[in-house]
Design brief:
The structure is a homodimer. By secondary structure, the first copy, chain A, is α+β, with helices and mostly antiparallel strands. Chain A folds into three domains: 51 residues, S15/NS1, RNA-binding (Helix Hairpins, Orthogonal Bundle), CATH 1.10.287; 185 residues, Bira Bifunctional Protein, Domain 2 (BirA Bifunctional Protein, domain 2); 99 residues, Anticodon-binding domain (Rossmann fold), CATH 3.40.50. Helix content of chain A is 40%, strand content 18%. The first copy, chain A, has 14 helices and 14 strands. In chain A, the strands form three sheets. The first copy, chain A, has a seven-stranded mixed sheet. A five-stranded mixed sheet of chain A has the order 11-10-12-13-14, with helices on both faces. In chain A, strands 2-3 form a two-stranded antiparallel sheet. The longest helix of chain A is centred in the N-terminal third of the chain and has 22 residues. Chain A is flat and about 85 Å long. Chain A starts with a helix and ends in a 14-residue tail after the last helix. Chains A and B meet through α3, α6 and α11 of A and α1, α4, β3, α5 and α14 of B. Chain A: Its EC number is 6.1.1.21.
């Protein structure tokens, strides 16, 4: 033990020595020699003991969303939220963790997949497993008897992740529910209408919505002679759906060669669950609910796949114009102009360089998909004009007087946007618009 | 050594056993028992040996260096036999981890998401354990102060657009503070604690601050006085120029660097048209743990305070600065990626806006519904369902009551409560005539519209373009 402690101390001292040498910018040879000594010492500690500074990764079953993936996500959410709003839904949000007791007993066997927070001396908490139980808790807590709401948020399940198949431990759920005592089947029908509107608008292929009813299943099993005790194992549907259940499946899924087709299985599901809120209400007061959940993670994958197949370039910004300079010493002018454009609500950028080359600025536009470039040049400055150029066609769209430019900026940008539709941001082609 | 290796091997085998049982979907009891054994074995290895703790996979040691004492406020997840995890405390560390992980050398990104702190919540003052952060950062090696200036421009644009009142952005520089304290005679070890005292100048008098520094923190009175000469100053670019001429400060290399950068910054801010909103304030000294250059903080000048209540919004609504060393802490090769950014204090802004709406007695709509499809008599549900579906298919935001035979009065009342501006009334006579009555809910004016013209008429009245958006 003492031997080990001594070894660790040596490693520490040698590490400091190496750092010191680097700071003093000692000779490369000397540094290399001392680093060699450090590594030898660490090796003596044993491979498992060397302090692994860190492993750069996200937790198992989770992922970062890159700008490109965010662009897809934003578009998909946009389609979905538009639909929810079209049907008059309000939106709520709830905390990512709930009291452990709120979630206990609601998920049957799946309860073992719940992430618990460490007991740090306060309330015992767990990460939400879905959005439905928090919704029921919200209704009961606020004594609401009716609401039509959507909720888009991440949920957490300690599952076996299969990230290539879109199965994560942290993933988005996209729920819409109508709670309240209403005349039969009208809200249920609206939920199905919403599901169809969304799946059509997303243009991910033909789909079919399967519908059944728990009571029909129960009755059918009963007359076929299935004993009560076997019910749960025979149907794999979630405990809470006690009446109408729906599931939307894609009929034609884009499959890569040799790979299991993504999106096999459902992209949306839902149903009626009249008993859940009553489990939370102190008086056991029931609030009938019917709702749906869109499987957005699967849809992200499908849309991403589709964009790749079409070799569509996805824009990750919405910048309309780059403010550029043709010669040196024009930074001040660029800063002034870009500021005017921002103040007018135009989406503009400039390179963070004092004297950028024009070619580099144009290249930047091409990579980012920026459609227009406003070029400031010495001669043009004297003449009081700015050159506005289309990046793709290289055509000079306008040499506008500075005052005119400022006044008509919006007009120009919209006009040339329409004239060169291939310069529109994030292609809607994949989403069919 | 061998003992340890054997222990580690046992942990590995037990871990595999647990995984196997879970895969086979063995009984919950059996799994729990074996997990318990695994945890016991791990405990024997000792806490330092347990696999790295991460906030989104960041080791606790790194966090300790960054968050310091605050790391006790991090929410940990229970050890359930897998990786040890924690909930993110802010968005900056995840950002640095993301940059290092993807070996990115430059990016301009925003990130709006919730973060988690086991703080003492004070919900009336907008301090929660789960709250939104709203970050914008520019990472990369660029020509000096241009991205820094853009960050300040963005802060000003946002605070102006939100219309929550006049504001001021205080600006300072870590290097100026370091240099200033050095020439005043503050020892390195007292740096942080003196900073936190100086930072209180925006709330309390210099006398109180001096008393705290001398009386509680053991600073020599002469040193405190020297500090006082500097930190009570604030102004525009002229103050920067004045300090550049200061005989003592100009001898300090760090302070000179900071002042030089601030001078350049002010030039750019003038070109951006926001110099009148910026104040170079030598008492700005908060949140310095990872800032390496310019730092800034936006405060509201006039806060809407309810009678008798502590004015909300005292304190900052946005803050940020340059932090060149953070990504290097994550990169395995220590490769540096300079960063500058800002964070908008949205929870505070939410409170201010909510307060304002209440004061103005503004009714906030919670839906965007444009028209309610209603029926004037009984037995018209089918017609309502057909019509509302046509409206939805045309992209119009419409609703109907989930009742077979609702009373017209109730339907109108629903519109008034929800703020729905139009109601399309189906009536027996109108059906025969092929028209729908379109009524404005507020003015009660009605007009008969032909069924085929209804969509266009609604779009015209609601200012919607004719194509489907």
């Amino acid at each position: 033990m003492a031997e080990r402690a001594a070894l660790e101390e040596l490693v520490k001292l040698q590490g400091e020595r190496v750092r010191g040498l680097k700071q003093q910018k000692a000779s490369a040879d000397l540094i290399e020699e001392e680093v060699g000594k450090l590594l030898k010492l660490k090796a003596q500690l044993g491979p498992d003991e060397s302090k692994q500074k860190f492993v750069l990764k996200t937790p198992k079953g989770t992922r970062d969303y890159s700008p490109r993936q965010m662009a897809v996500r934003e578009k998909v959410f946009d389609v979905i939220i538009r639909c929810f709003k079209r049907h008059g839904a309000e939106v709520i949000d709830t905390p990512v963790f709930e009291l452990k007791e709120t979630l206990m007993g609601k998920y049957g066997e799946d309860s073992k997949l719940i992430y618990d927070l460490k007991d740090q001396g306060g309330e015992l908490l767990s990460l939400r497993y879905d959005l439905t139980v928090p919704f029921a808790r919200y209704l009961a807590m606020n004594k609401l008897t009716n609401i039509k709401r959507y909720h888009i948020a991440k949920v957490y399940r300690r599952d076996n992740p299969a990230m290539t198949r879109g199965r994560y431990r942290e993933f988005y759920q996209c729920d819409f529910d109508i709670a309240g005592n209403f005349d039969p089947m009208i809200p249920d029908a609206e939920c199905l209408k919403i599901m169809c509107e969304i799946l059509s608008s997303l243009q991910i292929g033909d789909f079919l919505v399967k519908v059944n009813d728990r009571r029909i299943l129960d009755g059918m099993f009963a007359i076929c002679g299935v004993s009560d005790s076997k019910f749960r194992t025979i149907c794999s549907s979630v405990d809470k759906l006690d009446k109408v259940t729906t599931q939307a499946v894609l009929l034609q899924t884009p499959a890569q060669a040799g790979e299991e087709p993504l999106g096999v299985g459902s992209v949306a599901a839902g149903g009626r669950y009249d008993g859940l809120v009553g489990m939370f209400d102190p008086k056991g007061r029931k609030v009938p609910c019917v709702g749906l959940s869109i499987g957005v993670e699967r849809i992200f994958s499908i849309v991403e796949q589709r964009l790749e197949a079409l070799e569509e370039k996805v824009r990750t910004t919405e910048t309309q114009v780059l403010v550029a300079s043709a010669q040196k010493k024009l930074l001040e002018e660029r800063l002034k102009l870009v500021s005017e454009l921002w103040d007018a609500g135009i989406k503009a950028e400039l390179l963070y360089k004092k004297n950028p080359k024009l070619l580099n600025q144009l290249q930047y536009c091409e990579e980012a998909g920026i459609p227009l470039v406003a070029i400031i040049g010495e001669q043009e400055l004297k003449d009081g004009v700015i050159k506005l150029r289309s990046v793709t066609s290289r055509e000079e769209v306008r040499e506008a007087g500075r005052k005119t430019f400022n006044f008509y900026y919006g007009y120009f940008i919209d006009y040339y946007w329409q004239k060169w539709p291939d310069t529109t941001p994030f292609t809607y082609k994949a989403l069919g618009a």
